[in-house]
């Protein structure tokens, strides 16, 4: 409950909370933890960023998964949208259920819809149940919508099953550990918290990245995430996405500035764990 | 022609050249530049790695695109398959055509199939031609197969159009710069060439990555690509994929070894440009 309180205190009457849809998505589930009145689904990560910009709202997007790595669209939008900052990160375990309409019996004809990643993770359960007709779709919430068909099931979240009126047949069917980090974004920068994100480009010469990392090493700061992403129009040139333990420090920024070409500080914020993980 | 000669000299009677299919894919086009007799399509990157291992063959897989970034499946397989090495990298411009059966006339009913990335890149051309019925499929070669339907077109490579007997209606319809790097892989390590790849993990403490990069900085070695990828079963821990200018150096390896937890050298090799780029 402690975490829920903390998130509530973040919100100051936003003009909408925009999340990556469709309804019933994991982003939707995270968005509902934020106090608000107007929850609006968007069909892409770029649309969430655009809606936040346009309406001075709050956005919820996935940023990293422990199996798949970074969510490229989120990183690229953070780099290109200068007026959007990270206000919170929320870690959420991806728990999957098998669900269908209440009269579905599993037979050799039963179809199962899900996102390809979820299918991979539920492989063992599907084998045990003798299910072989598996149809990949673009999200687990889309799967829940399609599971309303006759003799069809979905691998989705318990939340999506509830939203679309499906009955849960089997819970926790995922193999292994699967956690997604979500970012809460807005046009307001925050400078307090235990995590910070900074994006930058370095000169293309020996030691380019090394010199930037030196600023962190000399201050004994731990990096929690570093990804490189292509600049697209200039082949084989990159920007870096770096998350570190600690808050904004003017002196650290000054030290970095002497070794970067471009630098964008994206905020200091709290890193929250979803209760359900423990 | 110089490049083609070079690639020929690479091959010593392999037991099959395995590429990411379907037939007509860009990997297929690259595979055909390698002299051989037995070209075999595979339905996933992991299958290419498995086939190379099983048959002591040669594999062709995409490794990086200047817009999309790294091809995660290729990086992860290189990290997990200890006996597979990179023998060449080949850079290929992704040029797209609009193609269909010879009697297709563009009307408001005309469907266009393609991979989502290719659709994005051909947006302006589609607008000019007044085409609005666009159907995303999982590859440009799959699009070429589907374009055999009545009143359908594909956005695909000229090569795919040729393989599937389509007529090219418009060439070079891509916007912007789009280049993919492909890796030629096998069970044999090569130690000569102007590029090298090494994969490693670092201790999770301040300066972990910094100390490894120091080995390169002190030797004035330029990094051409560095990506981090999750270790999956241990959340928020990573391995690094690093490509540098230069060949294998025993002394550099020794220097790195004192600062890494795990290290896998994946070979030194030539970096080739496809002629068509110039």
Automatic annotation (TrEMBL), chains A, B:
Residue ranges occupied by any Prephenate dehydratase domain in the UniProt entry:
16-187
GO biological process terms held by the UniProt record: L-phenylalanine biosynthetic process
Q: Which UniProt keywords apply?
A: Amino-acid biosynthesis, Aromatic amino acid biosynthesis, Lyase, Phenylalanine biosynthesis
Would I find Amino-acid biosynthesis among this entry's keywords? yes
InterPro entries recorded: ACT-like_dom_sf, ACT_dom, Preph_deHydtase
Q: In which pathway does it act?
A: Amino-acid biosynthesis
Q: Which GO terms describe its cellular component?
A: cytoplasm
Query: Would I find Amino-acid biosynthesis among this entry's keywords?
Result: yes
The record's listing under SUPFAM superfamilies reads: ACT-like (SSF55021), Periplasmic binding protein-like II (SSF53850)
Q: Record's Pfam families? A: ACT, PDT
Residue intervals of the ACT domain: 197-274
Known Gene3D superfamilies for this protein?
A: 3.30.70.260, Periplasmic binding protein-like II
One GO MF term attached to the UniProt entry:
prephenate dehydratase activity
Superkingdom of the organism of origin? Archaea
Record PANTHER family: PREPHENATE DEHYDRATASE P PROTEIN (PTHR21022), PREPHENATE DEHYDRATASE-RELATED (PTHR21022:SF19)
What protein am I looking at?
Answer: Prephenate dehydratase
């Amino acid at each position: 409950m402690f975490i829920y309180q903390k998130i509530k205190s973040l919100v100051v009457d936003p003009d909408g909370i925009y999340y990556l849809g469709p309804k019933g998505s994991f982003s939707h589930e995270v968005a509902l933890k934020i106090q608000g009145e107007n929850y609006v689904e968007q069909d892409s990560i770029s649309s969430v960023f655009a809606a936040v910009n346009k309406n001075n709202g709050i956005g919820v997007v996935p940023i990293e998964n422990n199996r798949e790595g970074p969510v490229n669209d989120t990183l690229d939008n953070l780099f290109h949208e200068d007026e959007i900052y990270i206000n919170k990160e929320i870690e959420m375990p991806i728990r999957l259920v098998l669900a269908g309409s209440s009269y579905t019996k599993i037979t050799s004809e039963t179809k199962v819809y899900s996102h390809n990643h979820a299918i991979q993770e539920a492989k063992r359960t599907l084998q045990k149940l003798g299910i072989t007709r598996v149809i990949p779709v673009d999200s687990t919430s889309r799967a829940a919508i399609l599971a309303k068909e006759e003799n069809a099931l979905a691998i989705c979240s318990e939340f999506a099953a509830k939203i679309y009126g499906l009955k849960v047949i089997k819970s926790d069917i995922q193999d292994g550990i699967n956690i997604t980090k979500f970012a809460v974004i807005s046009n307001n920068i925050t400078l307090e918290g235990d995590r910070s994100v900074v994006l930058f480009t370095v000169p293309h010469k020996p030691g380019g990245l090394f010199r930037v990392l030196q600023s962190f090493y000399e201050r004994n700061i731990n990096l929690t995430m570093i990804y490189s992403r292509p600049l697209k129009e200039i082949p084989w040139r990159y920007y870096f996405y770096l998350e570190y333990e600690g808050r904004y420090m003017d002196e650290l920024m000054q030290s970095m500035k002497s070794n970067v070409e471009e630098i964008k500080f994206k905020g200091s914020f709290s890193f929250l764990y979803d209760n359900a993980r423990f």
